[in-house]
């Protein structure tokens, strides 16, 4: 191979797929940095400069993806909801009723146990959502949609009080993130998981 050939190879334009991968990687780095800073020091106390420094990118690059700081918060929450939807899609593959409820509980408690720092940051971020009414409405809507889903699974599982316990179980699962972030292992996650499985899945 000649020197000229080597130069041509290195100067070859990137493919569309490569550009998309670079864009996605840059966007992910920015969102990860914003997520951590928003959770640790608060949305209003975090500047775009700090996010750029944390992400290791130029400040101007952030504006290629997000017009303003509020757009970062929106993207973080919506990305989180999208990931939750993907997890629920996997859980839906289990048999309706007790098997599906068990899959949901197993995943929830495993995630809390294996991703303690992420959960702590999410809990801190969740407390700031009320400053964004549109996001608060979306998150509330997702929570309210979980209740009838749980009621349906409890009904299929043969639970005598599906409606009442759907609200109770939804409140427990929703509150676990904050509780574990504050109390840590003192919550005895494994014991609580077994109690819920025995109550709803056996």
List keywords for this structure.
mainly alpha; 202 residues; single chain; Arc Repressor Mutant, subunit A; Tetracycline Repressor, domain 2
Explain what this protein looks like in three dimensions.
With 202 residues, this protein is mainly alpha-helical. The protein has two domains: 66 residues, Arc Repressor Mutant, subunit A, CATH 1.10.10.60; 130 residues, Orthogonal Bundle (Tetracycline Repressor, domain 2). It is built from ten helices and no strands. Helix 2 crosses helix 7, helix 6 packs antiparallel against helix 10 and helix 8 packs across helix 9. The protein starts with a helix and ends with a helix.
What's this, in brief?
The chain has 202 residues and is an all-alpha fold. Helix content is 78%, strand content 0%.
Set down the secondary structure blueprint.
Layout: H1 3-10, H2 16-41, H3 48-55, H4 59-65, H5 69-91, H6 98-114, H7 116-126, H8 133-156, H9 162-183, H10 189-200
